[in-house]
Specification:
mainly alpha, 129 residues
Protein backbone atom coordinates (compact mmCIF):
# COMPACT_ATOMS: atom_id res chain seq x y z
CA UNK A 1 0.00 0.00 0.00
CA UNK A 2 1.31 3.41 -0.90
CA UNK A 3 0.50 6.84 0.42
CA UNK A 4 0.76 8.53 3.74
CA UNK A 5 -0.27 7.01 7.01
CA UNK A 6 -3.16 8.67 8.82
CA UNK A 7 -2.24 11.24 11.45
CA UNK A 8 -2.31 10.01 15.03
CA UNK A 9 -4.32 12.21 17.33
CA UNK A 10 -4.22 12.56 21.07
CA UNK A 11 -7.00 10.74 22.84
CA UNK A 12 -8.68 12.13 25.96
CA UNK A 13 -9.04 8.56 27.23
CA UNK A 14 -5.40 7.67 26.53
CA UNK A 15 -3.61 5.43 28.99
CA UNK A 16 -1.06 7.46 30.90
CA UNK A 17 0.33 4.84 33.25
CA UNK A 18 -0.02 1.09 33.31
CA UNK A 19 2.20 -1.60 34.77
CA UNK A 20 3.45 -4.36 32.51
CA UNK A 21 1.39 -7.57 32.52
CA UNK A 22 2.74 -10.15 34.98
CA UNK A 23 3.13 -12.80 32.27
CA UNK A 24 5.72 -10.87 30.23
CA UNK A 25 9.34 -12.02 30.40
CA UNK A 26 11.87 -9.88 32.27
CA UNK A 27 13.25 -8.57 28.96
CA UNK A 28 9.75 -7.69 27.75
CA UNK A 29 8.98 -5.91 31.04
CA UNK A 30 12.19 -3.89 30.68
CA UNK A 31 11.06 -2.76 27.22
CA UNK A 32 7.55 -1.97 28.52
CA UNK A 33 9.08 0.17 31.26
CA UNK A 34 11.24 1.94 28.66
CA UNK A 35 8.49 2.78 26.14
CA UNK A 36 5.45 3.28 28.36
CA UNK A 37 6.53 6.78 29.51
CA UNK A 38 7.13 7.77 25.87
CA UNK A 39 3.70 6.56 24.78
CA UNK A 40 2.03 8.07 27.85
CA UNK A 41 3.53 11.46 27.13
CA UNK A 42 2.20 11.37 23.57
CA UNK A 43 -1.30 10.46 24.80
CA UNK A 44 -2.06 8.14 21.90
CA UNK A 45 -2.14 4.73 23.60
CA UNK A 46 -5.62 3.40 24.35
CA UNK A 47 -6.98 0.10 25.62
CA UNK A 48 -7.42 -0.96 21.99
CA UNK A 49 -3.65 -0.62 21.46
CA UNK A 50 -2.55 -2.74 24.42
CA UNK A 51 -2.32 -5.91 22.33
CA UNK A 52 0.13 -4.22 19.96
CA UNK A 53 2.21 -2.95 22.86
CA UNK A 54 2.25 -6.38 24.52
CA UNK A 55 3.24 -8.03 21.24
CA UNK A 56 5.96 -5.43 20.63
CA UNK A 57 7.44 -5.96 24.09
CA UNK A 58 7.23 -9.75 23.71
CA UNK A 59 9.06 -9.56 20.38
CA UNK A 60 11.80 -7.33 21.84
CA UNK A 61 12.11 -9.77 24.74
CA UNK A 62 12.58 -12.64 22.28
CA UNK A 63 15.24 -10.68 20.36
CA UNK A 64 17.21 -10.16 23.57
CA UNK A 65 16.75 -13.75 24.74
CA UNK A 66 17.90 -15.14 21.39
CA UNK A 67 20.89 -12.78 21.35
CA UNK A 68 22.05 -14.15 24.71
CA UNK A 69 21.57 -17.69 23.41
CA UNK A 70 23.53 -16.94 20.23
CA UNK A 71 26.34 -15.31 22.16
CA UNK A 72 26.63 -18.43 24.29
CA UNK A 73 26.10 -21.12 21.62
CA UNK A 74 27.03 -19.40 18.36
CA UNK A 75 25.17 -18.84 15.11
CA UNK A 76 26.22 -22.24 13.77
CA UNK A 77 25.79 -25.55 15.61
CA UNK A 78 27.06 -29.07 14.99
CA UNK A 79 24.22 -31.47 14.18
CA UNK A 80 25.49 -35.05 13.69
CA UNK A 81 28.81 -33.77 12.36
CA UNK A 82 27.25 -31.24 9.98
CA UNK A 83 27.32 -27.52 10.61
CA UNK A 84 23.82 -26.06 10.66
CA UNK A 85 22.40 -22.64 11.34
CA UNK A 86 21.30 -22.28 14.93
CA UNK A 87 17.46 -22.14 14.99
CA UNK A 88 17.75 -19.16 17.33
CA UNK A 89 18.95 -17.11 14.33
CA UNK A 90 15.58 -17.51 12.62
CA UNK A 91 13.63 -16.95 15.82
CA UNK A 92 15.56 -13.75 16.45
CA UNK A 93 15.12 -12.58 12.86
CA UNK A 94 11.35 -13.13 13.00
CA UNK A 95 11.14 -11.31 16.34
CA UNK A 96 13.18 -8.40 14.94
CA UNK A 97 10.79 -8.10 11.99
CA UNK A 98 7.71 -8.20 14.24
CA UNK A 99 9.19 -5.68 16.66
CA UNK A 100 10.15 -3.29 13.85
CA UNK A 101 6.65 -3.39 12.34
CA UNK A 102 4.95 -2.97 15.70
CA UNK A 103 7.35 -0.19 16.71
CA UNK A 104 6.33 1.72 13.59
CA UNK A 105 2.65 1.23 14.43
CA UNK A 106 3.28 2.58 17.93
CA UNK A 107 5.32 5.55 16.69
CA UNK A 108 8.59 4.28 18.17
CA UNK A 109 10.84 4.42 15.09
CA UNK A 110 12.78 7.46 13.80
CA UNK A 111 10.76 7.49 10.58
CA UNK A 112 7.40 7.23 12.34
CA UNK A 113 8.43 10.01 14.73
CA UNK A 114 9.57 12.27 11.89
CA UNK A 115 6.11 12.28 10.34
CA UNK A 116 3.70 14.91 11.59
CA UNK A 117 2.16 12.21 13.73
CA UNK A 118 0.35 13.93 16.56
CA UNK A 119 -1.86 16.88 16.03
CA UNK A 120 -4.69 18.42 17.91
CA UNK A 121 -8.14 18.61 16.29
CA UNK A 122 -8.01 21.78 14.24
CA UNK A 123 -10.74 22.80 11.90
CA UNK A 124 -8.49 25.47 10.35
CA UNK A 125 -6.74 22.98 8.10
CA UNK A 126 -9.86 21.11 7.14
CA UNK A 127 -10.30 20.54 3.43
CA UNK A 128 -14.03 20.99 3.75
CA UNK A 129 -14.92 24.60 4.58
Amino acid sequence: MRGTKPHMQTDPEAITDLAAPHWLSADAVAEWDRVMPILSERRILTVADLGSLENYCTAIGQVRQMERHLQEHGHVIDVDGAMKRNPAVGIQSDAMTRSRLLAAELGLTPVSRSRPAIREDDDADSLVD
